[in-house]
Each structure stands twice: as structure tokens, then as C-alpha cells.
């Protein structure tokens, strides 16, 4: 490669930062550079090109109407001065695109996002191949560094007693959901079509009528339809095309920044994948599958590639597989199984396809998710066993707080299910809400700031147990205003607070999510991801500092949890405690679910 | 015989592509082989800067196009590639293609004069084109020297004041009509790329300066310092308005019986505003001097466009605006002695006749 003489000239009164960066890059690559100060006339730049015998000229200009003519004139001057055949001329600026550079008569155009390396490649007459720096290539296991040691031994002992009771209770129980999960596994694993059909017939007998009529008469539920083969192949082509063009960015600025999850579930697998790819490109580390709310209240799953007119993407083996196949290899994928009548089967399908994470919580699912506490307890034990078998960590979400259940009660339920998970060989992840919950609206803990009470939750959980924490869901929820929905700034500040507190993961909303009166848009998702990235960049290793209230409230929360657990032990039955409201009462806003009531069976 | 016609604009949105499109349509009616290229990116649906819609070129079968690689899949015309050239642009290498299925085309041809010349030669010599149209870009004019004649598109997008617009166009017209040196003058054989100062006796030693362009103080000073021994100043490259003014300020009456020879009017037009340049040329003449060009580029016609993109501050966007087209046409026609056409409303019949007359003259 020959050494080039490069003249860099801002055709602007002031802007030349980009040129200074490129100058440094060119010099590091052994080229001679001359950087002209700003505010020279075009004729003076032409003369400098001649005087310096420049091989390449890089012009920078911020573009507005009329300025295109100035740049066109510059090229004409170079041509009339006889320079165009021996001097390469490139133009850079925020509004420059290749089409505009071509229209203006330049040899290359460098728009926003241009790297120094790209400009160097132009100078050296070689093709620019973008470097893969800053792109994550590995999945992060957020449970890896945790041993789940309990610091609060009294709480651990109470939890063990409760877990003993649960395991004892469920030991001779089963449900149709557990039977279906095993049949689903056989359908997936069988290689014989006739055998699969035999399993399907058995499966259909264990389902609600709407699912039964799908298997027996090929009838689709209302507002659902199968995707055509053209649609399925178009989807695969779309994914291939996007993957070939995608250069994903990284959200984290330091190692302590948490992994960032987004949620999807438009109903349409194609749209879901488009959202996932957009979020991957803008740095999301993980994605969470949302299924329709009716799915939680229906016994049995459908099969095939199915799209849904309303929110929530239908769980079928094929739908989830197409999502899995669209994911970048480093993207974490969670399929939620935390509520509803198909919890064990959800974990089986997710596990067989290779999901990284699932979500299980008996307390939330039965107090705010609509499923009968007894039914969900029996199903959840089976589901946790599958999660352990497929090495899928699961978060234990405390969204019952959104119904008004105080954090200490929700945490008591979360810790019970976590301890149950540990006993069954699983890897639970604590998922406290990190938002403006009804409890604090009523009791005023967030009147001054959003920091202290959220920090108190993390301090409290860390005081009790050494376990991974994933804040949700989504962080900053219920901070909406009518004019701004949930602002990206609010999400980003919550993300940095979570990072300050050393949590492992966060789930974020899109700035048009909730009350947006329409579908979530990619632009809003990107806005929120960018804001999160900017906030991580802003704080780096610096931390937010809560007031002394955080520690005080953490202690109060821990005492509250202990008292709740004592009351559950005293009650003698975890399931009965759920019905009685010990882990969230009707006064709090929690109502034991009715879906699947009286459906638990005693094993033969 | 063949004819290469450039369509140059005085600004963006003055109607270059509308003019090119109208000429194309007329040419298709008389069944003549056509080559088409541009010195920039034209044919895009939306203007790159104002975001207003722009006309696209509709090309018929057998038209020969020169356009960049990435533009081949824009539009809906289909092509047979005749040559992939080594000419690189930000939109990929230039291809010379034959239209095999008519449709809308995106034309982004070579933007340097020398590359344009190569493409034109290939179109005429090897692919049989009788007429080659070169669509302009923005206010660019320099590569147009590689044509046989130009049509200038001007209008409200350049200036919404009709009187100023007419005055400026008249200046352009006058500059393009500067006298050329007669055929027997020896300067035709000069191939220098530097400024030359010729003495009274042309057989005596001439002085070659360091620059080909007149763009700075030191060159102006050097010329004035040597003016006593100089009869002809030959400038082969760019002439900047500011430097020419400086030269005039220094020369004054010294211009008497001296001649400034420029390579072509384009080298002058590139360097400044037409009215100011014409003013400087007239000063030379008033002081007894002469101005000639080595090569004359004929101005074939002027098309005018009353449209301009009107900026609406309150909306932060552009919307269509118009000036009085009757007044514009009347005043422009009085000012210049070439056809003046409102292409959008009058069509290109007059233009076609002008081009055919030129083609006839060439043969």
C-alpha cells in the first residue's frame, strides 16, 4: 500500500472534529495529512490541493438546503481546475448518504456512523469491511456466579419447612397438564407419524373443547389462523436477509451493567421476529415470549405455525421453533410458564427447542394470574422438575405487586418458590418489581424519589440470600404520563439504578408500551434501547446513592417477609395460605384464581 | 453524425430532469437511436434534500444507458449489460446497458468530464447512438464541456425574483457566447496545462506560470508584474471571480490591445456568479482588451420552471411554490436569442427541432 498525501478540509465555519479523528487514523496508518483550519473559501481549498499535491481530499460539511449547491460547486471547481482525474474527493457529514454524494459528484460519501477505518479504506483504495468490535458473541448465564447461600438462616429454615409441606402434598397428585406435558414430549420425540397421531388423540382427550375440536376437526380458535407455506418460507428468507446485514451493537458500557431483556408477543410470529431482530440489532441481550392471556385459561395447546389477531403469540412447538431459529446465537430466550393451565407443557416445549430461561411463580400465577392455587402448585412442581432437567434457569416474578400486594408479601411467595426450585435441582432467579407499584403510591415511599424503595428491595434480597436478581417487569413500569407514556429516560434511569445496585438482568419496556393505544413500534423500542445504552455510558462505574431510607426499608421488608413465612408455617399448608391471603389478600388486591379449580387428581 | 446534448441546471429543482424526460419523449417519436446518462444521481422518487417528489426518467427499448451498478435494480426497466466499466461512483461501477424492457430508470452516470467522454464515445462509436443526452445534477456545469451543446434549465428554484433571474440568465447567455479564436490562430495547438504569458512577438519565448488556474493573489501579481512584455494571457483551467476582479483592479488601462484567452466559458462560469463575471469581462473590454475562448460551447436553448420548493418555517418542511410563468417567459425571451421554453406546459417540440437542426449541421 502506497503512502498517500491527504488534505482534510472542513467546508464549514467551525465543524472539523470528524476530520481531526480521521487525520489521526490516517497518520497511524502511515499517511501524510494536512488539516486545513475551518472557514477557508473553496478557492483556497482548491489552491491547497494544488500546492500540496494531494492524492486524496476529504471534505466535511453539515448539510442544509443550498449547501448541496455549494458542494456541487466545489466539485465543479476541482474539475475546472483540472484536479478531478488525479485527486479522489470524499465528503462527510451528518446528512450525507451515498446517493447524495453521487448527486454531488464526489467519489464517496460518509454519513452518520462512519468509522475512521472506513475513511482510511477509502484513502487506501480498498473495500471497507466493518470490524466486528463491540458486538457480543456469547450468551451470559446470569446464575453462574451464585451459590444460593442463605444469610438469613431463620428465613431459610421457614422456607424449608414450607417446601417440605409442598412436596409432601404434591407427591401423590397429578393434573391433566402434567399428563399433556408428557404426551407432548412423546409427540416431539417420536419419529413415527402414526405414533404421533396416537399420542395426539390421547392428548386431545385431556384438553378443553376448543383445543379438542382443533385436533379432532381441524378447527381453529377464533382470531387465529395457520400461516401459509409462503408466509413461513418468506419468514425464513426475511431472517436470512436480516442476519446477513445485521451488525448488532452492545448496550453495556462496563462489566457490571446488567443484561437487558425485551418482551415480545404481537400475536404474529412474523412481526415478533421483526421486533426481535430490531432489538438484537440495537443491543438487546435477551427476549421474552408473551403468550395470549386466554392461553393461560385454556387446557391444552394447538399445533403448527399459527398467527393470532390480538396480543400474545400462541405457544406451539412450530411457532416457538421458528422464533428460536431466527435468534442470533448469543441472544438469551425466555419462554414464560409462570401462570396458567399449561405450565409444565410450556417448559417441556421450551426445553426441547432449546430456550435458555423460563418463568415460574406459584404465588403470582395463582394470586394475580388467574389460576387456582392448588392446581398451579401441583403443575409448578412438575414444571420446575422439567426446568431442572433441561438446565433452564427460571425467574420467579413478583408481578402480584402490580395488583397491590406489598413487596414483603410478594417476596415471601417468591422465596418459597425459589427454595422449592433449589430443592428440585433448579436455578431460580429472583425477580423483584422495579417500578412505581401501587403499594408505594398508597404508602408514599416514592414521594421523594424512585431510588430508595427500589434499592431497599435489592438490599433486602441480598441480605437474605446470595442469588441472581433480574429486575422487572418491565423496569420503570407505572411511571407513565399521558403525554409521554413510559419515557425512555425513565427506563434508562431505572436501568442505571439496577446497575448501581449490581443486579444481573433487567426487562425493559418500549417507550410506547402500555396505554399506547396501538402496536409497539420498532422506533420506540430502539429509542428505549438507545436511552439505556446512553445511561450505562453516562454512569460507567459511578453509582447512584440512595438515602438512608433504603436500608431502613430493607430491614422492615426483611422483618415483614419473616413474619409472613412464620404465618404460612403456622397455617400448616402453603396452598391454604394462598387461599387465605397470607401471601397477598383480597384487601391487598390479590384474588386466588379460579381457572383449573378442583382439577387436581390423585395419582392412580 | 451524432450530437451530444447536456442539460445543465442553475440550481436543484430548476427542471433538468423534466427537460431531459420531455426531450426523450420527443426523440422516441422520431425513432432515433438514443444514449442517456447523467453527471449525478437523478431519477430518484424523492429529492434527496427537500423530500419533494422528483420526476423519474421513462426509457424505451433499445435506449443505451450509462448508470451505476446499484441503480440497475431501481425503477422497473430491464437491461442487457453491454459493458461494466472501471468507472467507480458511490453507487458502484458504471455500466453501459441497453434497455430490453421499457420502464422507469434510475440514472446515475459518471460525474467526471474524462469519464463522461469515455461513455459518450462508447455510446456513439460502438453502440450506434445518434443523440446522447447528458442529464445534469444540481448546479453542476463543469463536466458539460464534454458535450456539443447545452440546454440550460433555470427558474424560480434559482431565484424567485423574475428580474434578477432574467438578468442572471442573460449574463450566462453572454458568457457562453464569448468570441472564440479564429481557426487559424496558433493557440489551437497549445496543449499547456499552465497559464502562459505570450509576448508581442509570438515567436519569442513565452512565460509559463506555476498554476493552470487563476485563483490566488500571487498569480495575479505575477501576471501584472510581467504585463509589459505580454500580449496574450492564456488560462487553461479555472478562473475564480475574485481573482479575475483583482486582476482587473491591477490591470485597468493596461488591458489595451491585450487579450485574455480562456480555454472555454465553462472554466469561467464555474468560478463565480454569471453577472459578476460578465461585469469583469466587460471591464476588460471597456479598458481596450479582448476576451476569447479556445472552444465555444453552444447554448442551444433555455428551459424555465416557475416551480420552487417553498420552505414553511412553521411546519419545518418544503411545499411547492410558483412564480408568474407568463412574466418569466416574456422577459426571458426578450433577453436572449435562443428558444426559451416552459417545458412543463409547452412540451419539447421546439427543442426537438433545435436539436435536429444541430444534428443536421454536424453532418
Textual characterization of the structure:
Chain A has 604 residues and is an alpha/beta fold. Chain A contains 22 helices and 17 strands. In chain A, helix 19 (488-500) links the parallel strand 15 and strand 16. In chain A, helix 6 runs parallel beside helix 21 (549-571). The longest helix of chain A has 23 residues, at 549-571. The radius of gyration of chain A is 29 Å and the shape is elongated. The termini of chain A are far apart. The mean pLDDT of chain A is 91. Chain B folds into 2 domains: 3-175 and 298-362, P-loop containing nucleotide triphosphate hydrolases (Rossmann fold, 3-Layer(aba) Sandwich); 178-295. Chain B contains 10 helices and 20 strands. A 9-stranded mixed beta sheet of chain B has the order 6-7-5-2-10-1-11-17-20, with helices on both faces. In chain B, strands 13-12-14-15-16 form a 5-stranded mixed beta sheet. In chain B, strand 6 (78-89) and strand 7 (92-101) form a beta hairpin. In chain B, helix 3 crosses helix 7 (274-286) and helix 5 (241-251) packs parallel to helix 7. Chain B is globular and about 65 Å long. In chain B, 50% of the residues are buried. The model of chain B has no long low-confidence stretch (mean pLDDT 90). Chain A binds chain B through residues 41, 43-44, 46-47, 50, 63, 65, 68-69, 72-73, 75-77, 79-82, 84-85, 97-109, and chain B through 11-12, 39-42, 44, 48-50, 68, 70, 88-91, 108, 111-114, 137-143, 193, 211-213, 215-216, 236-238, 240, 242-243, 266-267, 270-271, 309, 311, 318.
Could you tell me how far the N terminus lies from the C terminus of chain B, measured between alpha carbons in angstroms? 5 Å
Q: Low-confidence stretches of chain B at least 5 residues in length (pLDDT < 50)?
A: none
| Sheet/helix structural class of chain A | alpha/beta
Strand arrangement within the widest β-sheet of chain A reads 14-13-12-11-9-8-16-15
Q: How many extended strands of chain A?
A: 17
| Oligomeric state of this protein | heterodimer
The largest β sheet of chain B comes out as: 9 strands, mixed
> Largest interface here, residues on each chain?
A-B, 34 and 47 residues
- CATH H-tier superfamily of the largest domain in chain B: P-loop containing nucleotide triphosphate hydrolases
What integer is the average pLDDT of chain B?
Answer: 90
Amino acid at each position: 500500500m502506497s503512502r498517500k498525501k491527504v488534505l482534510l478540509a472542513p467546508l464549514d465555519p467551525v465543524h472539523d472534529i470528524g476530520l481531526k479523528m480521521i487525520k489521526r487514523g490516517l497518520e497511524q496508518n502511515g499517511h501524510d495529512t494536512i488539516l486545513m483550519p475551518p472557514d477557508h473559501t473553496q478557492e483556497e481549498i482548491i489552491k491547497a490541493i494544488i500546492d500540496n499535491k494531494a492524492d486524496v481530499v476529504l471534505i466535511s460539511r453539515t448539510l442544509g438546503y443550498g449547501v448541496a449547491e455549494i458542494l456541487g460547486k466545489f466539485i465543479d471547481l476541482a474539475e475546472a481546475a483540472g484536479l478531478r482525474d488525479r485527486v479522489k474527493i470524499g465528503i462527510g457529514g451528518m446528512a450525507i448518504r451515498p446517493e447524495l454524494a453521487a448527486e454531488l459528484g464526489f467519489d464517496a460519501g460518509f454519513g452518520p456512523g462512519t468509522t475512521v477505518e472506513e475513511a482510511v479504506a477509502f484513502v487506501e483504495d480498498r473495500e471497507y469491511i466493518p470490524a466486528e468490535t463491540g458486538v457480543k458473541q456469547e450468551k451470559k448465564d446470569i446464575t453462574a456466579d451464585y451459590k444460593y447461600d442463605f444469610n438469613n438462616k431463620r428465613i431459610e429454615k421457614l422456607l424449608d419447612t414450607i417446601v417440605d409441606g409442598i412436596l409432601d402434598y404434591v407427591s401423590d397428585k397429578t393434573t391433566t397438564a402434567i399428563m399433556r406435558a408428557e404426551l407432548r414430549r412423546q409427540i416431539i420425540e417420536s419419529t413415527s407419524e402414526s405414533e404421533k397421531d396416537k399420542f395426539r388423540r390421547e392428548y386431545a382427550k385431556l384438553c378443553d373443547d376448543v383445543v379438542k375440536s382443533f385436533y379432532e376437526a381441524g378447527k381453529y380458535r377464533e382470531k387465529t389462523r395457520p400461516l401459509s407455506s409462503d408466509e413461513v418460507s418468506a419468514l425464513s428468507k426475511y431472517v436470512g436477509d436480516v442476519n446477513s446485514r445485521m451488525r448488532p451493537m452492545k448496550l453495556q458500557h462496563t462489566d457490571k451493567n446488567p443484561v437487558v431483556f425485551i418482551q415480545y408477543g404481537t400475536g404474529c410470529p412474523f412481526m415478533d421476529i421483526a421486533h426481535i431482530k430490531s432489538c438484537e440489532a440495537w443491543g438487546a441481550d435477551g427476549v421474552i415470549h408473551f403468550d395470549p392471556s386466554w392461553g393461560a385459561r385454556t387446557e391444552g395447546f394447538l399445533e403448527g405455525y399459527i398467527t393470532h389477531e390480538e396480543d400474545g403469540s400462541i405457544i406451539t412447538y412450530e411457532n416457538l421453533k421458528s422464533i428460536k431459529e431466527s435468534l442470533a446465537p448469543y441472544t438469551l430466550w425466555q419462554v414464560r410458564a409462570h401462570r396458567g393451565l399449561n405450565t409444565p407443557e410450556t417448559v417441556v416445549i421450551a426445553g426441547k427447542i432449546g430456550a435458555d430461561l423460563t418463568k415460574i411463580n406459584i404465588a403470582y400465577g395463582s394470586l394475580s394470574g388467574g389460576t387456582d392455587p392448588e392446581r398451579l402448585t401441583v403443575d409448578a412442581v412438575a414444571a420446575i422438575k422439567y426446568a431442572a432437567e433441561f438446565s433452564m434457569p427460571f425467574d420467579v416474578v413478583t408481578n402480584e405487586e402490580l395488583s397491590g400486594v406489598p413487596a414483603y408479601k410478594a417476596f415471601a411467595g417468591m422465596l418459597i418458590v425459589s427454595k422449592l426450585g433449589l430443592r428440585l435441582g433448579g436455578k431460580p432467579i429472583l425477580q423483584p418489581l422495579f417500578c412505581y407499584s401501587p403499594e408505594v403510591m398508597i404508602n408514599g415511599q416514592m414521594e421523594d424519589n424512585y431510588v430508595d424503595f427500589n434499592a431497599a428491595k435489592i438490599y433486602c434480597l441480598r441480605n437474605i440470600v446470595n442469588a441472581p436478581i433480574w429486575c422487572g417487569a418491565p423496569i420503570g413500569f407505572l411511571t407513565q404520563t399521558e403525554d409521554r407514556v413510559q419515557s425512555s429516560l425513565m427506563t434508562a434511569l431505572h436501568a442505571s439504578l439496577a446497575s448501581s445496585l449490581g443486579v444481573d438482568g433487567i426487562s425493559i419496556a418500549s417507550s410506547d408500551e402500555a396505554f399506547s393505544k396501538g402496536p409497539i413500534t420498532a422506533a420506540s423500542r430502539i429509542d428505549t434501547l438507545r436511552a439505556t445504552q446512553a445511561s450505562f455510558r453516562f454512569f460507567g462505574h459511578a453509582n447512584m446513592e440512595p438515602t438512608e431510607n433504603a436500608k431502613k426499608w430493607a430491614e422492615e421488608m426483611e422483618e415483614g417477609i419473616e413474619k409472613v413465612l412464620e404465618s404460612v408455617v403456622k397455617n400448616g399448608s402453603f396452598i391454604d395460605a394462598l387461599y387465605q391471603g397470607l401471601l397477598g389478600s383480597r384487601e391487598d388486591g390479590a384474588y386466588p384464581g379460579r381457572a383449573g379449580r378442583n382439577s387436581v387428581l390423585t395419582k392412580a | 453524425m451524432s450530437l451530444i446534448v447536456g442539460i445543465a441546471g442553475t440550481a436543484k429543482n430548476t427542471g433538468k430532469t423534466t427537460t431531459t424526460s420531455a426531450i426523450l419523449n420527443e426523440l422516441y417519436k422520431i425513432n432515433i437511436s438514443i444514449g442517456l446518462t447523467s453527471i449525478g444521481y437523478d431519477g430518484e422518487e424523492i429529492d434527496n434534500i427537500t423530500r419533494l417528489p422528483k420526476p423519474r426518467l421513462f426509457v424505451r427499448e433499445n435506449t443505451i444507458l450509462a448508470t451505476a451498478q446499484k441503480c440497475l435494480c431501481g425503477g422497473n426497466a430491464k437491461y442487457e449489460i453491454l459493458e461494466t466499466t472501471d468507472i467507480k461512483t458511490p453507487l458502484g461501477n458504471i455500466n453501459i446497458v441497453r434497455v430490453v424492457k421499457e420502464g422507469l430508470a434510475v440514472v446515475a452516470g459518471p460525474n467526471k468530464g474524462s469519464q463522461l467522454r469515455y461513455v459518450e464515445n462508447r455510446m456513439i462509436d460502438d453502440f450506434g447512438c445518434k443523440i446522447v443526452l447528458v442529464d445534469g445534477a444540481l448546479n453542476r456545469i463543469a463536466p458539460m464541456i464534454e458535450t456539443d451543446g447545452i440546454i440550460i434549465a433555470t427558474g424560480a428554484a434559482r431565484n424567485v425574483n423574475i428580474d434578477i433571474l432574467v438578468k442572471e440568465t442573460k449574463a450566462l447567455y453572454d458568457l457562453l457566447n464569448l468570441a472564440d479564436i479564429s481557426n487559424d490562430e496558433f493557440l489551437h495547438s497549445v496543449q499547456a496545462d499552465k497559464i502562459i504569458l505570450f509576448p508581442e512577438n509570438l515567436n519569442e519565448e513565452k512565460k509559463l506560470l506555476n498554476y493552470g488556474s487563476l485563483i490566488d493573489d500571487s498569480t495575479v501579481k505575477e501576471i501584472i508584474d510581467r504585463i509589459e512584455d505580454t500580449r496574450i494571457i492564456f488560462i487553461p483551467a479555472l478562473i475564480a471571480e475574485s481573482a479575475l476582479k483583482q486582476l482587473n483592479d491591477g490591470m485597468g488601462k493596461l488591458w489595451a490591445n491585450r487579450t485574455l484567452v480562456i480555454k472555454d466559458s465553462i472554466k469561467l462560469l464555474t468560478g463565480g456568479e454569471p453577472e459578476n463575471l460578465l461585469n469583469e469581462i466587460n471591464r476588460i473590454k471597456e479598458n481596450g482588451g479582448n476576451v476569447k475562448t479556445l472552444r465555444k460551447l453552444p447554448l442551444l436553448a433555455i428551459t424555465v420552471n416557475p416551480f420552487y420548493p417553498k420552505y414553511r418555517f412553521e411546519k419545518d418542511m418544503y411545499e411547492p411554490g410558483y412564480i408568474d410563468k407568463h412574466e418569466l417567459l416574456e422577459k426571458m425571451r426578450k433577453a436572449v436569442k435562443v428558444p426559451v421554453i416552459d417545458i412543463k406546459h409547452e412540451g419539447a417540440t421546439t427543442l426537438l427541432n433545435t436539436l435536429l437542426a444541430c444534428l443536421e449541421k454536424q453532418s
